[in-house]
Design goal:
The structure holds 2 protein chains of 2 kinds. Chain A has a 6-stranded mixed β-sheet with strand order 3-4-2-5-6-7, sandwiched between helices. By secondary structure, chain A is of the alpha/beta class. Chain A is rod-shaped. Chain A is about 50% helix and about 15% strand. In chain B, helix 3 runs parallel beside helix 4 and helix 7 (about 275-285) crosses helix 8 (about 285-310). By secondary structure, chain B is of the alpha/beta class. In chain B, a hairpin with a 2-residue loop joins strand 10 (about 255-260) and strand 11. The N and C termini of chain B lie far apart (about 200 Å). The longest helix of chain B is centred in the last third of the chain and has 107 residues, at about 325-430. Classes of the chains: A alpha/beta, B alpha/beta. Chains A and B meet through strand 1, helix 1, strand 3, helix 3 and helix 7 of A and strand 1, helix 1, strand 4, strand 5 and helix 3 of B. Chain A: Pfam families: Septin. Chain A: GO terms for molecular function: GTP binding. Chain A: InterPro entries: G_SEPTIN_dom (IPR030379), P-loop_NTPase (IPR027417), Septin (IPR016491), Septin7 (IPR008115).
């Protein structure tokens, strides 16, 4: 069961064949009921991996609990746990353990955080922890994204046990701050440490208070998935009621009523580690190792790692990750498909730009041509007018000339007549003179 | 290291060497495989088979027989123009195990006259499934755990029971497919071949495959539990099968068989055919391995080729490994640069065109102005001519006027004088 914030946006394009699936009943033996055995066989051959992180202030019994969990002295006097070594700043240390049990091989990595919460000023003491978790996710992401992929070791942190001091009151600000910062990066399982300092009633109250505060601050601790099997679901409900688990750890084996048990010897009795009425240790061990180890890995892989990956890739390809509908759409594609889409968009944009520029170009050319035409027409017109003007003037001139010619010829004709007359007159006078008629 | 319950812990400190420590009791790690199996069973399994073979070789019948159920489909005709792939998905359940089975059939394979391109649609189909998975794997927000895997896990190649050798179409097709899918060659309708012919046939087929470098699927022999049976079975390849969904009563049992006048071929009789072997190997023993091989070998090869094609590399020229971020960023920068360059080019082209057009128009404008300058000059010349003419006419007019005035003056003088002379004359006459 995954938190809702992991689901993909609907309507994603899918190259997956959309198939109509039909049910069929078998009429005889086929043999694929053997598939689980095949899977079993292969997984045993492959071996398993698990990384467990423990976080808490020193002195809360983290190393002791680890020894108790694995029923052996991983940390001892000769090989002290990281907490016993004095550290100035928060460190993140890992140790690898190869476990073989019943033919099954498990590579267990235990990550300790000595120095956590031990300083006077603990601001950002969670940062090294976050950095470690992120760097393991980064390693996996890089390995997964290589062109040549080999077998990818899974070193991601699958579970983080957070130790709460048994104050009996509630969570400390550091506890709240840490869990708030890490609940979306890793499976957080809060534990009440050194629970043998609380009476059952105090413990109940303390647990209620813690769960209330966790809900108030909207911290998402690891949720046990519901299994369909009735018997197991009863167990699951029992576990859920007991959260957070109150644990006691011990490195010492004591004899109680003839039995050898791990426990803590007090003057008033022995607090047994594996006694369900004394503490929730067995619940923790069963849940962590025997029933939910695979689920812790699955949630880490399918939820926490995927969130890391999408955040990382979105930062690379979405340039900022502003949550618009465009970005949401981009998330459902691979970055390469994204680039393809962008390329297509760009081609369209270019086409549009080209058409627009072409349009503007044509329009401007048309304008200019029109202007040219207009000015040509105008010049033509003016030229025509001037021509007409000249022609008119010519005509006028011709007319004048003609008129003048006419007048001239008239006058000349007249002059000639006058001249003739004069000549005639003088001739007559001459004649008369000659005749003597004139004295 | 001998310990309680055969269990031990070997501790490898970071940097401090290893030491072994016994587990003092049962911790419970050995439940891990069971946890994993439970998860798988809850999730359900998925298997995809591709059947390649000529029409009429009994592919659909064999699937029905293998999975004991009647799948869809009618027998296809021989007149298909090309090779098509038809797939159907079924949900089967056996005890508590749910299986989503997809059966893909090649329709029309081997029916065409020219079969050169027959293998292409098959290869394309297989690649499409790989591509779909790759796309999903590369998405930013992905859901691989609920993805319906459509990649082909096993390819049953049906060989026609000629008894002689492989057809060239078979060799060509298998060669194209052997790097993309697990090929399990089977001799179809093998009830047409006698036992002695069959042995020879199998040997011939195997040697032809080897000599042509075709890599068929080998049942894995690395796991001791199944190594023996797998290696024996490897020697029986290709399996000679007979399929039948009809049942015949043999003794007091109803068995799947084909009834001939000369006898009954029992499908599940290991003396009659290798059907049981096929079922054992394909389904009961190696189904998971077939899926694993598809994912870790064939798919990885496809993915590697595809990414290399797109220019992705694992190390830069100095052999330092690229981080994913660097790779994507580099790709993206290159891509953006490319787009920008294209944009610039287009802009430049336009600027060029505008320049050219402007020059053209300027030329036209200049021509126009020149033309009108010429006309203007012409006009001015005409005007000047007109002016000159006007002037000469005016001069003439003036001249004429003067002449006229002068003449008139003379005339009037003459008249006056003439008048007085006449008067004198008349006076003298009168005397």
């Amino acid at each position: 069961v995954l938190p809702p914030w992991c689901f993909v946006t609907p309507g994603q394009r899918n190259l997956n064949l959309k198939l109509f699936v039909s049910q069929r009943n078998l009429e005889g033996y086929v043999g694929f009921a053997n598939l689980p055995n095949q899977v079993y066989r292969k997984s045993v051959k492959r071996g398993f991996e698990f990384t467990l992180m423990v976080v808490g202030e020193s002195g809360l019994g983290k190393s002791t609990l680890i020894n108790s969990l694995f029923l052996t002295d991983l940390y001892s006097k000769d090989y002290p746990g990281p907490s016993l070594r004095i550290k100035k700043t928060v460190q993140v240390e890992q140790s690898k353990v190869l476990v073989k049990e019943g033919g099954v091989q498990l590579t267990l990595t235990i990550v300790d955080t000595p120095g956590f919460g031990d300083a006077v000023d603990n601001s950002n003491c969670w940062q090294p922890v976050i950095n470690y978790i992120d760097s393991k996710c980064e390693d996996f992401l890089n390995a997964e994204s290589r062109v040549n992929r080999r077998l990818m070791p899974d070193n991601r942190v699958h579970c983080c046990l957070y130790f709460i001091a048994p104050s009996g009151h509630g969570l400390k600000p550091l506890d709240i701050e840490f869990m708030k910062r890490l609940h979306d990066k890793v499976n957080v399982i809060p534990l009440i440490a050194k629970a043998d300092t609380l009476t059952p009633e105090e413990c109940q109250l303390f647990k209620k208070q813690i769960m209330k505060e966790i809900q108030e601050h909207k911290i998402q601790i690891y949720e046990f998935p519901d299994i369909e099997d009735d018997e197991d679901s009863k167990l699951i409900r029992k576990i859920k009621e007991r959260m957070p688990l109150a644990v006691v750890g011990s490195n010492v084996v004591i004899e109680v009523n003839g039995k050898k048990v791990r426990g803590r010897q007090y003057p008033w009795g022995v607090a047994e580690v594996e006694n369900g009425e004394h503490c929730d240790f067995t619940v923790l061990r069963n849940m962590l190792i025997r029933t939910h180890m695979q689920d812790l890995k699955d949630v880490t892989n399918n939820v926490h790692y995927e969130n890391y990956r999408s955040r990382k890739l979105a930062a690379v390809t979405c340039n900022g990750g502003v949550d618009t509908s465009k970005t949401k759409n981009q998330m459902t594609r691979s970055p390469l498909a994204q680039m393809e889409e962008e390329r297509r968009e760009h081609v369209m944009k270019m086409k549009k730009m080209e058409t627009e520029m072409e349009q503007v170009f044509e329009m401007k050319v048309k304008e200019k041509k029109q202007k040219l035409k207009d000015s040509e027409a105008e010049l033509e017109r003016r030229h025509e007018q001037m021509k007409k003007n000249l022609e008119a003037q010519y005509k006028e001139l011709e007319e004048k000339k003609r008129h003048h010619e006419e007048e001239k010829s008239n006058w000349e004709a007249q002059q000639r007549i006058l001249e003739q007359q004069k000549l005639d007159a003088s001739k007559t006078m001459e004649k008369n003179k000659k005749k003597g008629k004139i004295f | 290291m001998k310990c309680v319950n055969g269990s031990e812990i070997i501790i490898l400190w970071s940097g401090e060497g290893a030491r072994a420590v016994p587990l003092a009791g049962h911790v419970g790690f050995d439940s891990m495989p069971d946890q994993l199996v439970n998860k798988s069973v809850n999730h359900g399994f998925c298997f995809n088979i591709l059947c390649v073979g000529e029409t009429g070789l009994g592919k659909s019948t064999l699937m029905d027989t293998l999975f004991n159920t009647k799948f869809e489909g009618e027998p296809t005709q021989h007149n298909q123009p090309g090779v098509q792939l038809k797939s159907n998905t079924y949900e089967l359940q056996e005890s508590n195990v749910r299986l989503k089975l997809t059966v893909v059939n090649t329709v029309g394979f081997g029916d065409q006259i020219n079969k050169e391109d027959s293998y292409k649609s098959i290869v394309e189909f297989i690649d499409t499934q790989f591509e779909a998975y790759l796309q999903e794997e590369l998405k930013i927000k992905r859901t691989l755990h609920s993805y319906h895997d459509t990649r082909i896990h096993a390819c049953l190649y049906f060989i026609a029971p000629t008894g002689h050798s492989l057809k060239s179409l078979d060799l060509v097709t298998m060669k194209k497919l052997d790097s993309k899918v697990n090929i399990i060659p089977i001799i179809a309708k093998s009830d047409a071949i006698s036992k002695s012919e069959l042995t020879k046939f199998k040997i011939k087929i195997t040697s032809e495959l080897v000599s042509n470098g075709v890599q068929i699927y080998q049942f894995p022999t690395d796991d001791e539990t199944v190594a023996e049976i797998n290696s024996t079975m490897n020697g029986h390849l290709p399996f000679a099968v007979v399929g039948s969904t009809e049942e015949v009563k043999i003794g007091n049992k109803m068995v799947k068989a084909r009834q001939y006048p000369w006898g009954t071929v029992q499908v599940e009789n290991e003396n009659h055919c290798d059907f049981v072997k096929l079922r054992e190997m394909l389904i009961r023993v190696n189904m998971e391995d077939l899926r694993e091989q598809t994912h870790t070998r064939h798919y990885e090869l496809y993915r590697r080729c595809k990414l290399e094609e797109m220019g992705f590399k694992d190390t830069d020229p100095d052999c330092k490994p690229f981080s994913l971020q660097e790779t994507y960023e580099a790709k993206r920068n290159e891509f953006m640069g490319d787009l920008q360059k294209k944009e610039e080019e287009m802009r430049q082209m336009f600027v060029q065109r505008v320049k050219e057009k402007e020059a053209e128009l300027k030329e036209a404008e200049k021509e126009l102005h020149e033309k009108f300058d010429r006309l203007k000059k012409l006009h001015q010349d005409e005007k000047k001519k007109l002016e000159d003419k006007k002037k000469s006419l005016d001069d003439e007019l003036n001249g004429f006027k003067q002449k006229k005035t002068a003449a008139e003056l003379l005339q009037s003088q003459a008249q006056q004088a003439g008048g007085s002379t006449t008067l004198k004359r008349d006076k003298e006459r009168k005397k």
